[in-house]
Amino acid sequence: MQGMFFGAGMLIHAVADHILSKRKPAGFPILRPLALEKLVYYAQGWHLALRDEPLFDEDIQAWRHGPVAPTLYRRFRFLGGNPIKADRLITNPKSLLSPSSLEVIDQVWGWYGKFTGPELIDMTHEERPWKETWGTRPRDGEGQDVIDPRIIREFFKEKHSEALENSFCGAPSKKSLKLLGEIVRV
Length: 186
Fold this sequence. Notes:
3 strands, three-stranded antiparallel beta sheet
């Protein structure tokens, strides 16, 4: 199974595996594919905003349940809604991702890792990248349009600027964002 995911698309799997490795040894919090897909999307968004470059090259699409990277979806679809077990790691993220990228992912985990899949869906459904791409379709409609990475970058840059100017509920703290800004400048 490991070999089938290696190649050009390996970085997205390293991002997912790093997030999965953040769980405590007992596997808590439980992560299901739906939540992991959203956490990888948030990692990509914050990395685009703070580093001005993507973590991975795969497209993120607007699906009914929020942003999804099809490559990652295919990796875990056999699980359905079941939790992802620790033995599902296929990469060594620390050998594939820069220390700065790992720190961004760690911050994203700290901010968003406490939310369930349904909570993350609701959050992404209220955010401009998914809403603009999804358009006027009903929420239970069908779609797999690519979310433009420029829209993702712009949205998270705005969120970063807003958080630096005003501390507001649901956003990373000013201190965390300043730390991320310092990490990025290194």
